[in-house]
Write a structure and sequence with these properties.
transmembrane; transport; mainly alpha; transmembrane helix
Length: 292
């Protein structure tokens, strides 16, 4: 190449866009990138809904009644357990069956949010590596998918309330703010566990084992009143975070009091969860694509 042509070629090359790896400027930059991810994910709400519905359709493709198989299995489980445990705990069957129904349906939702949250990134590794998409989309996708399943299972609650002639009032609507808190917690736990489990693949099995133990340690099949007068076992309720999270929705549905202390504890637990989730997501967001 002649000396005259070299500067011209250099100018043509220099006009092209060049990409360089930006230096990590610390937590301020990380939180800024996290904020952009969250805002962009919120804007894609229509995509999130489409993906969640697609998950449900693919899971039950070819099934005759689809997600209502879960509804049917829940109803059978309640019918099989209700009379046995009502007699075992010496409780009134007319109050125990609504309690057991609401508890099992809501606990199933909480458990699914947590266990599915472990896989909200690793389950879509091909999509994450091949498509530029906010990570929030995958977290909210998991929450919406489980919420759709919850709505199917809620049919069992309605039927039991009708059969048992459970009194309904405007007080039952107090469960709505608690449920909205659950949705936020579900996204937070999905971001947190999804990030951790993308790096450490043994964590989902540990989480599943913890949830299995928590099911028996939380008043789902048994009522908290049965532990009154037993100081050694009352700590099972006192230091169990699932009790407060569960009761902010369950108590209004069962016409039980929702005191300020219970709500405050639930808000504190949720606040800590959200804070830890955001810090963890901001710190490791850039590595998720390499871990999945």
């Amino acid at each position: 190449m002649s000396e005259r042509a070299q500067p011209e070629a250099h100018r043509r090359f220099s006009t092209k866009r060049q990409y360089v790896l930006a230096e990590d400027k610390g937590w301020l930059q990380r939180f800024h990138l996290m904020k952009d991810d969250l805002l962009e994910g919120i804007r894609l709400y229509h995509l999130v809904w489409t993906l969640a519905c697609s998950d449900i359709k693919l899971r039950y493709r070819g099934s005759l009644i689809g997600p209502f198989w879960l509804t049917l299995s829940t109803a059978i489980q309640i019918g099989a357990m209700a009379f046995l445990y009502a007699d075992l705990f010496q409780t009134d069957i007319h109050t125990y069956i609504p309690f057991l129904t609401v508890s099992l349906v809501l606990w199933g939702y909480i458990s699914s949010l947590i266990t599915d949250g472990c896989h909200c990134f690793s389950a879509y590794d091909t999509l994450i590596k091949g498509t530029r998409m906010p990570f929030l989309v995958h977290a909210v996708r998991s929450v919406i998918r489980n919420t759709i399943i919850l709505l199917h299972n809620a049919v069992v609650i309605v039927l039991v309330f009708v059969l048992m002639d459970v009194h309904l009032s405007f007080y039952n609507l107090a469960a709505i703010p608690g449920f909205l808190l659950w949705l936020i917690d579900g996204v937070a736990i999905s971001l947190l566990l999804g990030t951790i489990c993308a790096r450490f693949r043994d964590i989902p099995q540990i989480v599943a084992a913890i949830m299995q133990v928590a099911f028996f340690m939380t008043p789902v099949m048994w009522q908290a009143a049965t532990l009154r007068g037993h100081p050694g076992t009352e700590s099972v309720i006192l230091y169990n975070p699932f009790v407060y999270i569960l009761d902010v929705v369950r108590n209004p549905l069962l016409n039980e009091p929702l005191d300020a202390l219970l709500v405050m504890k639930a808000l504190i637990i949720s606040g800590v969860l959200i804070l830890v989730s955001l810090v963890s997501f901001a710190r490791f967001r850039g590595r998720i694509s390499f871990w999945v």
